[in-house]
Each structure stands twice: as C-alpha cells, then as structure tokens.
C-alpha cells in the first residue's frame, strides 16, 4: 500500500510539478514588478484601486492555486480561483475606499503600498482564504458540496502543515544563502551578498522556493500526516493542564468577584484567548473523531467543552458593560465578532459534551458549521456590511447627539485617527452643526480635530504642560533661556530624548552652562528617566534648540552623579583625548562610565 501511495504521489508530481513551479515564478515576477513600481512611482503605484487588489491577489492566491492543482478538475480550479479573486477584489477595494484623507494626503496610498495595506486585512484575508480553500478542496475530494468531517480534517491539517513547512523551507534556504555569501566574502567575492540585497533576486527566489516546498509537501502526504499526528498528540496532553487551570479560575470567581476582572480593562480579550486555547486543545484530542485517546485526555476534553460556555458568557457580559458605558469602538466591534464565533463553539461544544454515549462526536458538525460562520463574519468585517470603523463612528456620534456624553468629554481624536473615512465625514458634518446642545463647542472641537495630522499629539501644546514646572534648574537662582522655554518641543525629532519637554508630569533637572565658551548658554538636561543619558541642548543660528551631544553616563544608575551635578560640584575641562576629523566632521571619543566610576564619585568629598 505504501508503495502504491508513493507511485501515485510521483504520478501527481509529474503532471503538476511544472505548472506549480511556473506559478511560483510568475508570482515572483509579478510581486517584483509591483515592488519596483511601488518604489519608483510607476503605474499602478499611483492608482491605489489597482495596486492594492493586485498586491493582495499576488500575495494570497498563488498558494491556493498550487494547492488545488492536481486535486481539482481544471474547470473547478478556474471557477474557484475566479470566486477567490472576486472576494479579494471586494476586500481590497473596500480597504482603499475606507482610508482617511490623512493617508491620501500623505501619499501613502499612491506610493508605499507594500507598507500602507492594513496588516489585519492581510492576516485575516489569509485566514479567510485558508478556511474557504480547505472547505472547497474537501468538497472536491468527496465530490459533494458538504464533505465528510474526515475529509475536512485531513485537508485542513494537510494545508496547515504545508504552509508551516513551506515557510520553514524558505527560511532554511535563506540561511544557506547567507552562509554561502559569508563564505564567498571571506575570499573577497561578494557577488552572492550583493545579489541577496537586490529585489530582482530576493522576491523571485522566495516565491519559487515557496512553490517548491508546497509541491514537495503535497506529494508526500504520509510525512505530513506523521508530523500532524505527533503535533496533535503532544497538544492533547496539554489539555488536562488547561482544563484544570480554567476550572480553578472559574471556581475562584465566586470568592474574588468580577470587579477584579473589570479592573484589568482587557477581560474580554483574555477570556477569548482562553476560549481559543481550549478549542484548539479539544480538537487536538478529538482529531477526526476516530483517534484513540487516553482516559485522562477524554475526560479533560469533555470538561473543557463545558468550560467554554461560562468563559464566553463572562466575556459577553464584560463587553456589554464597556459598550454600555463607553459605546462601540473598532476594537469592541471586532471583539463582538469574535464572541459570535466563540458562542457558536461554546453552545455546540456544551451540547456535544452532554452526549455521554459518544466521544464528543457532535463537535464535528459544530466545527464545520462554525467554519462557515467564521467566513461570514470575516467577510462582513472587511466589507462595508459590518466595517468596525463605520459601526463605531455611527455609534459614537449618536451618543454625542443624544447627549449620552458631553461634547467636552467626547473623543474627537478617535474619529480623526481611528474612524477612517467615516470618522472624517462625521467630523466634517459636526464642524458645520448649527443646532443642538453645545453646538458651538462641537463645531469648534470638530474643526480642531480635522486639523490634526499626528495621532500622538494634536498639533497644539498640551494645556497642562509647563516646561518651568517640569524642569528643575540648578542652582535655583538660574533661569532657563527664554528661547528654550518658548520652543515648540513637540514638533522636534529630538524631543523623544527628554520627555520632560513634551509630557506633562515628567520631570527632569537642568544645568545652564556655556560649554563651548562662545558666550551663549547651553542647557544640560539630566535625570530624565530610567536608562537615559544627560543630553546637551544648544541654540542654533536659526534660533531653534536641538540636542548637540550627550554624556556617556547612565545617570539613572548613579545617584551620586545626580547629586554632584545638582550641588554644582563640577568643572569644565578640556578633553584628554583629541577628536578625529573626517571630511570636515569632528568625531569625539567618549570616555567609558561604569559602576567603578560611580563609586569614585560617591567616595569623593
């Protein structure tokens, strides 16, 4: 039988190998073309409604095509690929249309498409395609619309192992190429290293290697099944531990109360994670429903199947409380979608666990039905049907208009940076609102939000921020230069070096000293926070202050250094080591400062 299987695999390999490898080469060529267009600004880089669908299709569909070759009739493959292209097209076009004017104004959709495509859409788009492809392949294998659970199980896990080991194969190949480039570099031959830095080599090689790995794992199903069986058996023995932990958690809740859960502010996500762990481990033990399992694993699986329901119920309650108090946000809409899926599993598994005459066999039907639910939920989330941004913006604006939240407390910043296009449209409408409670204040705050260009600050200095309150100057009789106080530090890239200049409540200390002897004072900021070094700021010819140097000493680990600086027990001396001048640029050697130096400072009188 094993020999027959090997011969069959070889036959499949001869028929489809060339097409699969050609698919990998074509994918590499298309992705290289898109990458070069993205970098050079060529068409279709300037047309996001073309670039984004092409990029998503080239990234997601070839693996499905390679997997389908040899297992589906050519006509069925063409029909399935056409359907998949339509789904990708809808998702990609919606992803572009929902973008806010911030991205369009910055050119992020015209150039830089490789980085501007939302990560969640790519990840969950891949999840959607994986589930859908497994369902279609199983139906084709059984020659019916709804296949047997055994076929679903075999093909879904085969595809998962293929994807994992294809990624491993590509990584291993790249390590070998890195080794080769290092070997050639030792004999002054850097051609391989240079090739590995070129996109014309990197992109096609990765795609071709991926297609090779997909083909090799496809024609060796016995190896794939062996890996899958080992993985599932190992995971199944974690199930008793997980069931015990979750049981203990639920038993502790009557004594601790639910308030401690709400205080974490992320109870729903933790409970959903626990649901996911139990579901994966239960299926690792159940497998295709025919695998034998030890008694402790079988009991743990039945207990775990019952535990998912209370976990999900608590998660629903937790989310409901947050929505009642603060309304819907994109994250809460996504959490609600996850809870819909979790509820299907929870109810179905609880029903299966109460069927004592079977080894949880009903969960096979639950898994198949929930797979279709997952597809529907994902399609709704990444299309206009249930776009999280659209739903959350609509809800938040409704709460504002109904007076459930006052205008002064409303988060206009959320609409600007998390509401996507829907948030911009809502802000535009609110900025023109003429009637209703607090209409003038709403117009003013909405107009200000529309002018914001950076999500991390609103383009205006925070009202509570006062540099004179944050920065303590030593000695106390000294004052910071007026231009230093007037500087708008939140717009300066160097501001990240000293949070006391941009964040209310963050304090630091300062010395005003003339370091270079030009008669103009510089400002040395120290004690700025953990693992920071004292930074020297100087006024430039244009009147702007910037960081021009730092002391190579982590003063946060040396309190005696801070004390000496505050007490004024220091002198300015010329460096003992001369500097290097290279092409007009002066490079100054920094002396090492360590624990021994700190001890010497502490010992000094």
TrEMBL record:
It comes from the Bacteria. The chain crosses the membrane at residues 17-35, 47-68, 80-97, 117-138, 159-187, 199-217, 229-255, 267-287, 299-321, 333-352, 364-385. Keywords: Membrane, Transmembrane, Transmembrane helix. This is DUF4153 domain-containing protein. It comes from Rugamonas aquatica.
